[in-house]
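Pilot study result, target chain (189 residues):
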Amino acid sequence: MTTEGPMIEGLVIADAIDADFEAITAIYGHHVRHGLASFEEEAPSRAEMVSRWRNVRALGLPYIVARLGGRVAGYSYATSYRPRPAYRHTVENSVYLDRDLAGRGIGKALLVELIARCRRGPWRQMVAVIGDSANSGSVELHRSCGFRLVGTLESVGFKHGRWVDTVLMQRALCSESADFTPNRKKFGE
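Predicted structure:
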């Protein structure tokens, strides 16, 4: 397993800013309308995407973009896995790429950086909830970053006229033998 990010000439990974949200909204909208990575059926507005970004940041979690030649090539963020307090040390990741830039290592660069940022916070586990068991690209991306398959929920979504599975993958953010202190500061503090 390797978790080192690929070297892509001119690729810059940075915190998302308000100006990125035209591109982020377009990238996500394409995946909502044409893909199965998201189970949303209607693409959210720019205002809704900005609101979601602000909510992620208010939790102290990272929301990052990959820029290639000044263009937003993709984005990634972590959010709470579930709202109940017992889950507070587990995050869920999301990675979305511009449809024209898939397969170049940008997703891996984003996920590697997201993992690194989350490792610096108070989180112990990261979960990937991957739409469509046929999404081999996302499954392999997560596997290459240290995630292991923990299960498949069969036919839990219905989108584009068919039943869709959800693949669950997970990786530790800290060593199981590490002296884990749940009171570490949130990312960015």
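One observation from the pilot: DSSP finds four helices and seven strands in the chain. A full batch analysis is planned for the follow-on phase.
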